[in-house]
Structures are given as structure tokens and as C-alpha cells.
Prior knowledge:
Two copies of one chain form a homodimer.
Chain A: E1 16-19, H1 21-29, H2 35-48, E2 52-57, H3 77-84, E3 92-98, H4 104-107, E4 118-123, H5 128-141, E5 144-149, H6 157-169, E6 174-178, H7 186-203, E7 206-210, H8 218-228, E8 232-235, H9 249-255, H10 264-279, H11 288-295, H12 301-308, H13 314-323
Parallel strand pairs in A: 1-2, 1-8, 2-3, 3-4, 4-5, 5-6, 6-7, 7-8
Helix pairs in contact in A: 2-10, 6-7, 7-8, 11-12, 11-13
Amino acid sequence: MSKKKGSLLSYRPDIKVVDATIRDGGLVNDFHFKDEFIRDLYIANAEAGVDYMEFGYKASKDIFNESDFGPWKFCDEDSIRRIVGDNDTDMKISVMADVGRCNYKRDILPKSESVIDLVRIATYINTIPSAIHMIEHCHNLGYETTVNIMAISNAKEAEVSEALELIGQSPVDGIYLVDSYGSLYMEQVDDLADKYLAMAEEHGKFVGIHAHNNQQLAFANTITALTRGVSYLDATASGMGRGAGNCSTEQLLGFLKNPKYSIIPILKFLEKHIEPLKKEGVVWGYNIPYLLTGQMNRHPRSAIAATKQERTDYLNFYLELNDKD
Amino acid sequence: MSKKKGSLLSYRPDIKVVDATIRDGGLVNDFHFKDEFIRDLYIANAEAGVDYMEFGYKASKDIFNESDFGPWKFCDEDSIRRIVGDNDTDMKISVMADVGRCNYKRDILPKSESVIDLVRIATYINTIPSAIHMIEHCHNLGYETTVNIMAISNAKEAEVSEALELIGQSPVDGIYLVDSYGSLYMEQVDDLADKYLAMAEEHGKFVGIHAHNNQQLAFANTITALTRGVSYLDATASGMGRGAGNCSTEQLLGFLKNPKYSIIPILKFLEKHIEPLKKEGVVWGYNIPYLLTGQMNRHPRSAIAATKQERTDYLNFYLELNDKD
């Protein structure tokens, strides 16, 4: 317990900030972002010193109807290049590929033909073997890879250990601790981070964290993991993301002491793009239903529905949640 | 480092939840609460297992104009008794008295004539000697007392040590760690809690925490302090409190494992009273200006003004904050 990397005044050169605004925020508006939004976010992130910007999912058009979504559900090479050209910045480009929802053999080009740097493979614990196939494929194509094990708060300890063991043997570069339900407390993040880091250090990999804000702990859990030794930190502008959203970029950049980071471009972006988006009625962020699904370690889908219906009958909602068992 | 009291599944019988909704929330609406609001909150808190309910301030009517505020700025004995009678519940009644703003020799009755149980004395670090006079006076009148040292994030370490030493010699029952500016991170709470607890244990006193939510860390800091051994935990319904508000009662009760606590009465209260209050336009809670004053360890007054003006020119606000140095 309580080994720590660095203090509040030190900074860690191993830290990487990963902006996931389009990818996780796209779950709020079905990826219907204007190009100007994406382009200004790209510029803001690059100026702010953000290390990776995730443009969206590599979802299969065999499974998802193209007309139901904006282009960032699919992240065609042309879509990304329309924004970034050859990406003449120090910031790297990431996409997420879900196990079972991505035709990766067809849709992921060799790295030499793509402006994408990092493919993040999202998996549940029971689909780790498929995830490892995807990791190997993407690694062989020349990409950096991470594996993001979702819904970890519902997995058994022995399953997590076995999953980490399998992943340790794979060529993946990093493994992500993902608090899908926003249910983890800092003590649990400490313990999980130690477990992930032990495997990672043994196999020369890094660890990342992707937190959700159901209990207003996304930022707290992110800096807790950071203090523990986790180095890839997901954040989104204004915390935009599914349900209660994520750790916000402005919280994180205001905390990090690494002189390369600046909050200023993000503040400008919030003014220009996030405020209008909220005014249009795009809704995310902490509320009581999300708090309750987080406390009960449940998928936020019922809270998303309650939020859409603007429900404030909190007691009924609470009783319904308890009834589902 | 990292001594901990209890685990996530244990509960600590020493924990006391202190509802400060009227007192800190009163700073948002100048204490203009309807009696029904206060009465329903009193009933909800008692049913929820809350240990103390703070009714407001004991402010001097020589200093503050009675017509400018609701009755909870002054907490006359009659006002409290109008709600609680002789307080026939297990919950205790608290008021706050600010050093320099309370005519305590005149306005605080002997305990035998009052339904109040606890007087919390709020002080800055430079007025500790006056605070000690008030502590002694209230202690001699028969009350439980705490001292709440505000704006601790701006105090020097040597000053804090000296203050704790003086307080240790006083008859005060408890000492509060107060994050007035919402600027503390969990690591700092760990260190301060250890410091306060060392003094407290030496002198047979307890430690409490009062957190603010400028960086969305009020709940995180509260449970961090709790894990460290702090036992009096301030919370407010829906986090209602000055500026970015506080740790919310619903977050805290959903976390605590002590079987005496129930979130249900609070959820009912939120539905019935907090939602309508928000619809009336009473505003509190996290936003970007509060985040920035929190990050910079500043008094939230400029962020309160920005919120009132509904400013979203975040970059200008940030630059103005930096200009004040």
C-alpha cells in the first residue's frame, strides 16, 4: 500500500493525456459533430499539449447503419484526414475498436497507409481471447495498441487475474483500467491499479485509466490512479461522455504539473463549442439517477433513460433499481 | 502514510454525519427558506440517521440587518423551537457562530434553556485566540463545541501547528478541517487529516471535515478524510452550499456502511424541495469558474459573481484571476 510516484509538485514525464471527447461524447449525440467542432478540438488539444486524441470508433458498417450516425462512429481514414491531413502535430491519433463490433481485418489499414497511431481495443472480460486476436492483428499492422477491459467492477478477482495473465503474454502496449459504471471508490482504484501495474511492470507495458463521473469521482479516481503509477489518463472536454460523463480535460490539465500542458486552449474550446452544444440540448453529466446506478454498481442505461425523460421521482427510480435483482 | 481505519465493507461507529444544508445553503439564498422546507429537512435527516442538523448561524443583529435575511442567519431559540419543539429525536441540533460576527455573551443562552446541542465556532487562523474565548464560553454554558478553522489551504504549516497546539489546550470537543476554497487534493487531505488527528488523539478530541466542491472533490475528500480517521462528516442535501457547494448527503449516505443510515428520506426531500428550489432559480454547484478558483486556491467570490452574471467567457475569467496577483 501507499507506494506513490511523485508528489503534488513533481511531474512525471511518463504521463500521457488522452482526449476521448469525440469517442465517449459521441455516445451522447450519435457522433453528430460538426467538422468545425472536431477541427477546433484537434487544434485545442494539440495546443494544450494533449498527447493523444481519439476520433471515435472503428465500428463495422455491416452491423451499424451508416445513416444513423455521424462519421466518427466509423472513423474512415478519409474522415480523419479531412480534419488532420497528415497530422503535422506532436499529438497522436487514436481510435477505439470494440470486440465483436469491428471488422478489423477489413477496416483497419496497415499503419503505413493510415494517419492513426493507436488502436484501443475495448473488451469485456469474457471476450479477452478475441481481444487478443485483435491486438495481435493491429500490432502486426504496425499500430500502438491498448486493451480496455470494461465493466471491471463486476468481474471476479480471479477472472481479472487470469485476464491480466493472458494480456501480459500479448504484444499489447498498454492496459486500461475502465470504470464503466462510475462505481469505483479511490480505495478500489488503488487496489486495481496496483494489480494492473504489477502485471504491466513484469511485461514492460503501461497502464491507463478511463473513469466515469456517476459519483463525481472521475477526476478523483483519475488522479488517484496517477499517484499510484498509472500513466495514460483519459479525459474529455467538459467531461462530455456517456451518461454522467468522464474526467474533464480542464480538471486534469489544471492539476498536472508537467509544463507542456496548458488549460488555456481548452477554456477557449469550451466557450466556443461546448456551451453552444449544451444550449442545443445535448445533455451529459452528474445527476441523482447516475449517482444511484453508480452506488449500486449498475450499467447506467436506466439512468440515461431517466435523464432523457427528465425524471425527478428519485425515490421511485431508486426502488425500481432495487427491484431488478 | 496509509494507516487506514476500516475497509469499504466495515463501518465505524464513531462516524457522525452533520447536515449543514440550512447553514451553508443559506449563503446561497440569504437564509430565505420556507418553514416547510426546514421542517421536512429536519424530519428527513432524523429518518435518514443523520447525527446533527445545523440550523444556521448565530449572527449578531447589531452587525447584520434582520430584514435582509431569513431567520436562520440568527437562529433565535424561538425560530428553532418553532420547527423542532423540544427536539424529540435522536438527532442533535447545531448552530455556527463566526468569530467577530456573533455577540455570543448575549445571544447564546445557557444550554439548560436551549434546544441547541452543538455550537460550531468558525474562525480564521489569525483569530484563534478569540475563537478560544468563544469555545470556553460555550463550553461553560454546557454545549458541545467544535472549532472550524477556515481557509486552511492558505495558512502556513507552522501557523497550523501553532493553532492546533493552542486548540489542543482548550476544552473544545472537535476540530474541523475546512476546505473553504475547494482547492485541496486528496493527498493534502491525507496530510492535514494526519496532522489534525495527531493533535486530536493526544488531547481526546475528534476531527471533522467540511469540504467544498469547486474541483468536484468534495465527496472524494470527505471519504478520504473518513478513511484516515476523521469522524464528523459535513454534508448538505444536493450539495447545497456557497458557490460550488458541498459534499452531498446523498453521496455520503450511499457510501457509508453503517446500518443506521438510509438514503431514502433524503431522496424524497430532494424531489419535494430541492428540485422546486432549483426551478425557482436558486443556483449552486460545480462549474468552470469555481473549478478555476479552486485550482488557483482562491476565495470563490469572483466565481460567484461570474456565475450570477452567467459568464461563459472562461478564458477572460481565467486571465482576470491571474491578473490579481
